[in-house]
Design goal:
315 residues; alpha+beta; three-stranded antiparallel beta sheet; two-stranded antiparallel ribbon; 45% helix; 11% strand
């Protein structure tokens, strides 16, 4: 499948991270470095051609204040090795999360940076929707890397929910198994433990409730409409053709770029049959995220267009 490739995946991720870092450092300077002229500082960062290190050195930005993406991706320190140290870390981490959330996204450097990730969503959606990355880069850099990073940093519950979780942990009502959670069957009950923590503390129960949101997939969904569309060969899975000759099935139903009309298995467009939202996730990007005010969100514009087309065709 030919793509309108205009940028590599690595360059795309680099531009996102630099934009996020710029917001972080400008907010940091305003908060902790009063001697820095924020206008001049931002201008130098924005026009940097090879990263920010030389500029940060010039302005004596402390090493402890610099962005560490590896720590953002996985904040659990190496000192956390057992259940007790993990629980202590999580309580501290959640309290810090609550504190910076309550400061607002205009004061805290970290929350300002995370807010920038949200502001970039419209641009990221355009890159995905208009297939501006090669299939290989889309799988490697977006599906297998950036989606998880973005979800961890920029998607989550409001502060009061984190306060409730923290209170339950402190009260001993909520127990954390730790990273690398494993669930096994033993006789007539479930057993779970962390595959990472050294003590492998085990917990058992008669009921297992899966409380996560699974990845949407038209191939495994129980939605009768989607199952019927595929069974009757009215729809097809949006697939990516990788350079090694393999076919990567995304699990999304294929639709047109501009109008979100269903694409049939033979590549034809089914006029006025619109599909928009979760069933097209990975053909589109972050279809379940709440729109941000003031960005002319593409999902709202697409919904308006679909509604207008339906009304027009019904006349």
């Amino acid at each position: 499948m030919l793509k309108n490739q205009s940028i590599t995946g690595s360059e795309f991720i680099k531009r996102i991270t630099l934009d996020v870092e710029l917001t972080y450092y400008v907010t940091l300077a305003k908060l902790l470095y009063p001697d820095i002229n924020p206008v001049e500082f931002e201008k130098e960062l924005a026009t940097a051609s090879n990263g920010f290190k030389k500029i940060l050195d010039k302005y004596n930005i402390s090493a402890k204040d610099r962005v560490d993406w590896s720590a953002w991706e996985n904040p659990i320190p190496t000192s956390v090795t057992d259940t007790a140290s993990f629980t202590t870390f999580i309580k501290t981490y959640l309290q810090q999360d609550i504190d910076i959330a309550n400061e607002g996204n205009k004061v805290s450097p970290f929350t300002s940076a995370v807010e920038k990730l949200r502001e970039l969503r419209s641009n990221i959606r355009k890159i995905v929707t208009y297939e501006l990355l090669s299939d290989d880069d889309y799988v490697k850099y977006i599906l297998k890397y950036f989606n998880a990073l973005n979800s961890f940093l920029a998607v989550g519950p409001p502060a009061f929910r984190i306060e409730q979780i923290l209170a339950l942990i402190k009260a001993g009502v909520l127990t954390l198994t730790g990273p690398g959670m494993v669930v096994e069957n033993e006789d007539d009950h479930f057993v779970t433990y962390s595959s990472v923590l050294s003590d492998h503390q085990r917990y058992s129960g008669n009921v297992l409730i899966e409380g996560r949101l699974p990845q949407p997939s038209a191939e495994t969904t129980q939605n009768p409409l989607i199952k019927n569309l595929l069974a009757n060969k009215m729809a097809r899975i949006y697939s990516l053709y990788l350079s090694d000759g393999t076919l990567f099935k995304t699990g999304a139903l294929d639709v047109t770029t501009e109008t979100a009309e269903l694409v049939t298995p033979n590549g034809k467009i089914m006029p006025n049959f619109f599909l928009w939202g979760l069933p097209t996730e990975k053909r589109h990007w972050l279809t379940n995220g709440a729109p941000i005010p003031g960005v002319n969100d593409v999902r709202l514009r697409m919904a308006d267009m679909i509604a207008a087309r339906i009304v027009k065709s019904a006349k």
